[in-house]
Design brief:
Blueprint: E1 2-18, E2 23-28, E3 35-45, E4 48-54, E5 60-66, E6 70-83, H1 106-113, H2 124-133, H3 141-155, E7 172-174, H4 175-185, H5 190-201, H6 229-233, E8 237-238, H7 247-254, E9 264-265, H8 266-273, E10 279-281, H9 282-294
Parallel strand pairs: 8-9
Antiparallel strand pairs: 1-6, 2-5, 3-6, 4-5, 7-10
Length: 301
């Protein structure tokens, strides 16, 4: 038997007090013949009311409703479990599943249907293309599972947004967005580009952050027609739980001036952007481009 401690901490700090929507927490492992919960601690701030229930998969689900506004959110959980794990490879495959691909028996199709549904629909084509490159057809299922895990370990990486609890102060641009923005930058005078470079190097470590591309004299964006998606959707595409939206727009909502606006989903926009290629901070794209432009050009005759 192994005793495992699972610790989770979510902590957000905001520049002003915000109102929190209901949070749905999945923090307790599902107990089974080989997993037992020995102890559980949960700390949440600000003041809240909590209700526990089971979801459709029989997971323990906590519904948290906050009673107060705050400029800080903390969700801290610690669960100690007793894990009675058998040998990881001590299992047998059904005869019909020895080789891939295979079909599940009809009596199991209904139960398995939910697990065969696409979750991130926008990513299916990228994943499908990647799988087709791996030549998995006709392989023994056990060998396939080992190979897939090894490939994922080597070729996939988890990219954290920033240090714990901190949203990035530098916008992330996909290569498609940068290609468009670069067209606008090439139309600017050298003096403007030097000024932008200075502002990027002097970006503050805390919010609020002023866009380094903004012309501080006129208050206008010099690359407006080439601006990235974050600028095109700012204010109307929101993560309201995190306070990521324009407060001028919040004031208009309070005054009832935007009743006909359809609010978008910031997370859905981010998922769609992942299909546009590599994503890097604006400062990285800009610095690399400026360096390329500063290199002497040699012509051969």
């Amino acid at each position: 038997m192994q005793r495992l401690r699972i610790q989770h901490l979510t902590e957000y700090h905001f520049s002003a007090q915000v109102t929190f929507n209901q949070h749905r927490l999945l923090l307790r492992p599902r107990e089974d013949h080989d997993v037992r919960i020995e102890s559980s601690k949960l700390r949440i701030s600000p003041d809240y009311a909590i209700k526990w229930q089971r979801d459709v998969f029989d997971n323990s689900l906590a519904l948290v409703n906050f009673r107060a506004r705050s400029d800080k959110l903390i969700i801290a959980s610690e669960v100690v479990i007793q894990h009675y794990a058998p040998a990881p490879f001590d299992f047998l495959l059904e005869s019909y599943a020895v080789n891939f691909p295979f079909n599940y028996p009809a009596c199991e199709q209904i139960d398995l249907a939910a697990f065969q549904q696409l979750i991130f629909v926008e990513d299916q084509f990228v994943i499908r293309d990647w799988l087709q490159q791996q030549d998995l057809q006709g392989m023994e299922t056990f060998t396939l599972l080992v190979k897939l895990n090894q490939l994922i370990s080597r070729q996939f990486r988890y990219q954290i947004r920033e240090e714990p609890g901190v949203q990035s102060r530098v916008p992330q641009l996909t290569i498609a967005e940068w290609d468009l923005l670069r067209e606008g930058l090439t139309e600017l005078a050298p003096e403007q580009l030097k000024e932008i470079a200075k502002r990027m190097a002097a970006q503050p470590l805390s919010r609020p952050v002023t866009c380094p591309l903004l012309d501080l004299t006129t208050g206008a964006c010099p690359v407006y027609l080439h601006r990235p998606v974050a600028c095109r959707t700012y204010g109307f595409y929101v993560q309201r739980d995190l306070g990521l939206y324009c407060h001028d727009i919040e004031a208009n909502v309070t005054d009832g001036k935007l009743t006909d606006v359809v609010w978008g989903n910031h997370d859905a926009v981010d998922q769609r952007l992942t299909a546009l290629g590599e994503s890097r901070p604006l400062t990285d794209w800009f610095a690399e481009w400026m360096l390329e432009n500063s290199q002497p050009k040699i012509s051969c005759y």
